[in-house]
Amino acid sequence: MSDDDDFMQESDPEQYDFEYEDDDDQETGDVDIENKYYNAKQIKIDNPQEAIEEFLGLPALEEEKGDCWNTDQGTIRRHATSDGILEVTDQSQAIEHYRELLTYVKSAVTRNYSEKSINNMLDFIEKGADDSSAYQCMEKFYSLTLESFQSSNNERLWLKTNIKLARLWLDKKDYERLSKKLRELHKACQLEDGSDDPSKGTYSLEIYALEIQMYADTKNNKRLKALYQRALRVRSAVPHPKILGTIRECGGKMHMTEENWKEAQIDFFESFRNFDEAGSLQRIQVLKYLVLTTMLMKSDINPFDSQETKPYKNDPRISVMTDLVDAYQRDDIHRYESILQSNKDLLEDPFIAENIDEVTRNIRMNAVMKLVTPYKRFTLDFIGKQLKISLTEVEDIIGFLIVDNKLKGRIDQERGIVAVQAISDHERVDSLALWAKASRGFWHAVLNDAEGYRTEESNAMMSLVGGPLGPGPTSDPHPIRIGNKASNGLGKLHKLAGRKR
Question: 467 is in which domain, residue-wise?
Answer without folding.
Answer: 438-500
